[in-house]
């Protein structure tokens, strides 16, 4: 499990393509690999991956074909930066909300607004997932637990403070890029349960 509190930014140094998988070689800040073991779980842009090898501050991860298809990991290139979080341990503070590291879908960054001292990012999510997106609800974007601001049909925004921009890759986000999305598990359970009972969320009117 993960908390959705991104622990830092790491850099992709190499991608080794093999039949059915890509091996991602990622260089981490030195202090962040202390105590890491082979088999440990690390969320890379919100996707739970397993450490298969360590070479100093570089960790190796195998991303299977299905993972590459369902997430943005297949779009990474050497030199790209990623958000990371090592798996939570018993006793860790849950500063965000509990995440599984299993990506549900991807979204596209469609607009960036930069008012003074913060940034607002607008994302467009596939229509079938908008039923889980509510104002003031939780969502994980590239592994960061964030509070949803406004929702307009299948678009929503999040407001980011300078510290979030500094500590994550959102500080260099560009319009048009895709991101990994994990919807809040409690919201998903409630919405799906109500749907089974016949209390579907009314469809959003389209213009």
From TrEMBL:
Reaction(s) catalysed by this chain's protein: 2 6,7-dimethyl-8-(1-D-ribityl)lumazine + H(+) = 5-amino-6-(D-ribitylamino)uracil + riboflavin
TM ranges: none
Its EC number(s): 2.5.1.9
Enzyme class: transferase
Domain Lumazine-binding, residue spans: 1-97, 98-194
InterPro entries attached to this UniProt entry: ATP_synth_asu-like_sf, Lumazine-bd, Lumazine-bd_dom, Riboflavin_synthase-like_b-brl
Intervals holding Lumazine-binding repeats: 1-97, 98-194
Single GO BP term: riboflavin biosynthetic process
Any matching Pfam family: Lum_binding
Keywords: Repeat, Riboflavin biosynthesis, Transferase
CDD domains associated with the record: Riboflavin_synthase_like
This protein's pathway: Cofactor biosynthesis; riboflavin biosynthesis; riboflavin from 2-hydroxy-3-oxobutyl phosphate and 5-amino-6-(D-ribitylamino)uracil: step 2/2
Taxonomy, superkingdom: Bacteria
NCBIfam families recorded: PRK09289.1, PRK13020.1, ribE
Role, per record: Catalyzes the dismutation of two molecules of 6,7-dimethyl-8-ribityllumazine, resulting in the formation of riboflavin and 5-amino-6-(D-ribitylamino)uracil.
Protein name: Riboflavin synthase
């Amino acid at each position: 499990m993960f908390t959705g509190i991104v622990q830092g930014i790491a850099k992709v140094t190499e991608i080794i393509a093999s039949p059915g998988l890509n091996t991602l070689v990622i260089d981490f800040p030195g202090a962040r690999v202390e105590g890491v073991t082979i088999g440990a779980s690390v969320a890379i842009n919100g996707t739970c991956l397993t450490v298969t090898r360590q070479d100093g501050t570089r960790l190796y991860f195998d991303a299977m074909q299905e993972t590459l298809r369902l997430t943005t990991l297949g779009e990474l290139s050497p030199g790209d930066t990623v958000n990371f979080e090592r798996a939570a341990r018993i006793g860790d503070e849950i500063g965000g909300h509990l995440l599984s590291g299993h990506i549900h879908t991807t979204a596209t960054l469609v607009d960036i607004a930069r008012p003074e001292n913060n940034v607002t990012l607008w994302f467009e999510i596939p229509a079938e997932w908008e039923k889980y997106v509510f104002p003031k609800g939780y969502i994980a974007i590239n592994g960061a637990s964030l509070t949803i601001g406004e929702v307009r049909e299948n678009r929503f925004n999040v407001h980011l403070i300078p510290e979030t921009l500094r500590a994550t890759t959102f500080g260099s986000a560009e319009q048009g890029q895709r991101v990994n999305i994990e919807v809040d598990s409690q919201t998903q359970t409630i919405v799906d349960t109500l749907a089974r009972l016949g209390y579907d969320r009314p469809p959003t009117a389209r213009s």
